[in-house]
Amino acid sequence: MAVPIAILDCDLLLHGRGHKTLDRFDLDSVSDDFLLTQFGFPRDFILYLVELLREALCRRTQRSRAISPEVQVLAALGFYTSGSFQTSMGDTIGISQASMSRCVCNVTKALVEKARQFITFNRDPSSREQSFQEFLRVAGFPGVLGVLDCVQVAIKAPNSEDSSYVNKKGFHSVACQLVCDARGLLLSAETNWPGGLQDTEILERSAVYKQFQDTEEGWLLGDGRYPLKKWLMTPVDCPESPAEFQYNLAHTATHEIVDRTFRAIQTRFRCLDGTKGYLQYSPERSSSILLACCVLHNASLQSGLDAWTLERTEPLEQPKSLKQRPEDRDIEAEDLRKQLILKHFS
């Protein structure tokens, strides 16, 4: 004889049918300040996100008491910007912690599906020239297509005895290689790397590395942890001439944009801020959450919000220079950098 299985609704058990659950939550009933304080974004942008993700969220919640896309988006934003399923967030919108978790999962998947729409490297001549001009205005460094860096986001230790996620500072993390433009807009965000990999290993395995092999005009800027390439300009390790010092100063001021951008992302999306704790998820899901926050960063910037309004201001960590073997030197790249210094910084 078949045994019937009852599917229980956590929110119904918690609050009863009369409770103001999220599928009945009315955005018009709360103030703009409330939305900005609780969910980190203004009303217009939240409504834009709801419409952007509506189809995907409805597709994932084909249940008789499905939580509305509005509520799912609010729940996910509440998590991304606070880093916690706990305390007042569930009460604020009227759902259980279990439902909060499902909403975050659904919205994260929907945002990841939009990554290619919002994070893209336009390499047509007009985009290239615009990039050159915008970066040139920062500190006078010519020919810049983007600034490159690799950052770490703390996660809980994986269940397996996998040391590949232990980074050089001794904690578990996922690594993310970022490239951004002069405005802080992300051009590339590869978030699925174990934290134990060296920055150079990540670069050599990345899509950016393959994409820039045939670049004949312009370059990325990377700090001293990266090898000098014809398409990747790095600081002069031991500057001697005034021109080399000027080159390094302009390089540092321009490259700092990617550091500022990630600090702003961490500040807005506190789930990524290691000082507040680490992501309580598998490496795969943590990477997805990180990419979802990168998509939100770009979507908000393209909607007119300031990339660096919430930026933290702690001093930057100075990277150690790459110890390069003589046989790994790129002589053509060294000659190109010398010509660049002579022409633009002498």
UniProtKB/TrEMBL annotation:
Main location: cytoplasm
Record-annotated DDE Tnp4 domain positions: 148-298
Cofactor(s), names only, from the UniProt record: a divalent metal cation
InterPro entries: HARBI1-like (IPR045249), HARBI1_animal (IPR026103), HARBI1_dom (IPR027806)
Keywords, comma-separated and alphabetical: Cytoplasm, Hydrolase, Metal-binding, Nuclease, Nucleus
Physiological role: Transposase-derived protein that may have nuclease activity. Does not have transposase activity.
PANTHER family on file: NUCLEASE HARBI1-RELATED, PTHR22930
The family this protein is said to belong to: Belongs to the HARBI1 family.
Name of the protein: Putative nuclease HARBI1
Organism name: Parambassis ranga (Indian glassy fish)
Top-level taxonomy: Eukaryota, Metazoa, Chordata, Craniata, Vertebrata
